[in-house]
Amino acid sequence: MKDDLEEALNILNSALIKQRWPLSEAKLKPLIDLRDELLHSDQSMRHEAIMRIQADSRSPFAGEKLEAEELASLSPTPPPNAEFLFHLFLPPQNCDALVGDLEERYKLIRKKFGRRHANFWYWTQTALSLRPIIWAWAKKVSMKPVVAAVGWAVTKRLIGHDGWFATVVELLKRVRQ
Amino acid sequence: MARGDHLGEFEQLILAALMMLGSGENAYGMTIHEQVEKLATGIRPVSLGACYTTLDRLEQKGYVRSWFGGATEERGGRSKRFFEITGAGQRTLKNSMRLAGNMLAGLREIGGMA
Questions:
Q1: Do B29 and A101 touch (CB under 8 A)?
Q2: FRET label pair with B23: which of A61, A137, A150, A174, CA 20 to 30 Å apart?
Q3: Domain definitions of chain A by residue range
Q4: Whole-model pTM above 0.80?
Q5: What is Dmax (Cα atoms) for chain A?
Q6: Upper half-sphere CA count for residue B24 (Cβ side, 13 Å)
Q7: In this prediction, does ipTM exceed 0.90?
Q8: What would the pLDDT profile of B87-105 be if each residue is shown by its tens digit?
Q9: Is B49 part of the contact surface with chain A (CB cutoff 8 Å)?
Q10: What is the pLDDT of residues A59-103, one digit of tens each?
Q11: CATH code of the region B9-109
């Protein structure tokens, strides 16, 4: 719980509210709620969460007109476009593990060096990682037609027909026997 | 060493990193990547994607096994994939190291690796 509070303070106190409000214990709860909502919601839900927090009289944001986009952009999640690229070439479980690893390091870098550095690191890692992943994917994909072609050639030779239709019919006959 | 037990340079690095990290839940993508980066410092760049594709290949060869852990918040609700070197992996790595040791000794004899 203490870590949560510290994280909320670090993220929100330094970056989000730009040290405009001194924070007391009583004001921490809405901050944690906001942080959680920012972490676990999509763009429209973020906007709603921010509006709700702003309307809350206990909140340090009460009465302040903060840009929803600015707040949403402070959510410590990596760029989703980069993540999408991994989804194209990896099976879902592998992709989750890899993206989770990147996200874990991304958050550490962001905490230490800020959003810009973290985003740069994330995109660099994505670019470097995609090359071997695409290569492995291409090898896997290109092997399938090769195996199919070899299988087809062997079948045709075994059965002794030139036409594909005759080969299939003959193959089915033999399977049924 | 049986035919087909040959390990590539990067496969050796990954298996060495796994041995260093030990068994249990210490070895997952990020820690393996960090360990391999340390081992390859100044020699070659290492990406996380390369680690994963090599780990997949090693798993197919039976040198590594993997399993998925629970989802955690700091990973955005994504689960970790843990890895462990198998007995066959350890044997193959030791053989590769012995081979490298022999080469090094041979080169030292002729003064090629001062």
A1: yes
A2: A137
A3: 2-73, 80-176
A4: no
A5: 86
A6: 5
A7: no
A8: 999 999 999 999 989 998 9
A9: yes
A10: 555 545 444 444 444 556 666 777 788 888 888 888 889 998 988
A11: 1.10.10.10
